Structure formats: structure tokens, C-alpha cells
Write the C-alpha cells for this entry.
Amino acid sequence: MKKTIEITPNIEPIFGTRDENLHLIETSLKVRIDLRSDALHIEGEADAIVRVEQIFTDYEALRRAGVTLQNGELAGMLKLVVADKAVTLRNLADSGKQRSTGIRRMVQPRSINQRQYLEAIEKCDMTFGIGPAGTGKTYLAVAMAVAALSAKRVSRLVLVRPAVEAGERLGFLPGTLQEKVDPYLRPLYDALYDLLEPDRVDKMLERSVIEVAPLAFMRGRTLNDAFIIMDEAQNTTSEQMKMFLTRLGNNAKAVITGDITQIDLPNPRKSGLVEAIEVLKGVDGIQFCHFEHGDVVRHQLVQRIVCAYDGYARGQAELPLQMGEPISDSMARNGIVDSTGAPPQAKVHTQ
């Protein structure tokens, strides 16, 4: 079947950079799109052509309604549309508007897992977002929290992070207690300033409507009528994770984000997030959302870096052992542990 769609003025953004969006539609819906100066000539199955036509009709309707979509947002929305027959550009834009109450930017998922993540945050009182760097776990959680605060569904925002250095020891830091912990919480501040006007964020911080605090300050508190986010949860101990999860009060919602491949604790096996995945599996009211390297929304190179590290880690885990050789002996031979089975200690040379 063949179909011709007329090119209307200002519709070019839907084509994408170097026609990447057209290539996405072609590959996913198995159609052939021939771009001419005045029209698009589409060839393929009847159902696929109907879906392509719906995409362009919805985009034209949104454009006339004054909805401007950035290329990154549009590409992400198109991925969702071509992956699910029940999803349309117009529905995604409408749901994005509802989620973006009082926010400068539209909260729009760019992958299927991100969409499930946002839906889980809306439905569940506690949601875990687990996955590699750059998948939008923290940013989307902060965006949903700010939208809930702006819509007066909660009265305050509590953003929490464990104060653990990424493989460094910074020693004693100068300044007040807040100045000491602020560097650890900077990613949360960045998300807030990106979503709201800086003056508004500063006023909310002054009035404690938005509270940014290290995890150590949560002991003994009950958080009512609040949206609580814990970032970098992989760096919590088992005790800290249990302490945080039991802070939830009435009309409260919690989102916990983390990447179990980047644990900065001295003993990665003691991560509270890793334990929580097993302990809380199947608990009613809690949902776990797992992200993959395909959900990375940063620079395309970040996605390839994550894939490379995953492949390397799998290769290391599959290193063969010599027949009859104990695991500890093989690990010692490769420098992973010493002869006692413990990690090798740094050698100190004395004269």
C-alpha cells in the first residue's frame, strides 16, 4: 500500500537531525518513506501507514496548539509511539502537561522504562528506580516531586543523599555543617534549578518547603505530607536503608534511586539498596523500576560507555578456573584477593 502525506509549513522539526526521526519510523514500523520537496511518499502495510499518518496528524495538531517539542523530547516520544499501538503523540503531550504543573519544562519520558517509572511514581507510595548513570532516575523523580508540590498534593519536598565520596577521601571540609554537605547534594540542587526559577527555589529552601539534607539527619523523623527522594541509594548500608524507609508518614510518597554498579562503600556487598531489592520484592505498595543502557538520555557516548563497562564486567565474571583449583586460589593468582581470601593490602616499603 502507498500513501502520500503533504508537507505543511513548519513541520520539518519532526524529521529530526539528519532525518533521524524518519529513519526511526521506517525501521520500527517497517515502512519506506521517500521525502520529496512537497510531500512524503510512504509505502508499507496498511496498519503501519495508518500509524505513520497518525503521527504526522498529531504533530500538526500539537504545533497549531502552540506546543513546542525539543528534538530530544520529540525523539523520545516517537520511540514510545512506534513501540506501542495504544500510545499517540497527543496522549503523551497531554499527560506531560498534567505532570508538569508549575514546572518550566515538560516532564516527558523518553523510553518505555522511563514511562513505566513515571506511572509507578504516580500510583505507588514507594518506588525504586535502579539503573545506570544518565537514565533520568533522579531528574524525573525531582520533576515529579516539584510538580506534586506545585499542585499542592504535598506540602514539602525532602531530598536526601548519603554523604559518601566517590572513591576519594576529602578529609575535613571548611565551613558550616550545611556548607560541608552541600557538595554531596549538588546534583539535587542542579535538578531543582533546572525545573524552577532560581529565585523561587531559593525562597522555598529558606522557608524549608524544600529541604535538602544528608541521610544521617533522617534518624528519628516522621515525614508527613511530603514527597521524599533518596538519591545514590546504593551507597547506603543495610541499617541506613531500613532507617530511611521507615520514615514514611501520612500522605507521603518516597522515591529511591541508585545504580548498583557504582557502589562507593568499602564493602559493596553491604549495600542497603542491593539488600532492599531482595527483602522488599513482592511487598504491596512498592514497585521496582529497572533501567537499561538503552534508557540513557545523556550524550550518546555515555550509552556506549555503559555498554562497554557492562560487557567488561561480564567478561571478568566468566574468567575460567583451572580444573580443581579453589576460587580463592584463582582470585589470588589474578591479584583480586590475597592467599587468605581477603583483598590485597597496599605494600609499605621501609628502609
User: Anything to note?
Assistant: The two ends are 84 Å apart (CA to CA). The mean pLDDT is 83.
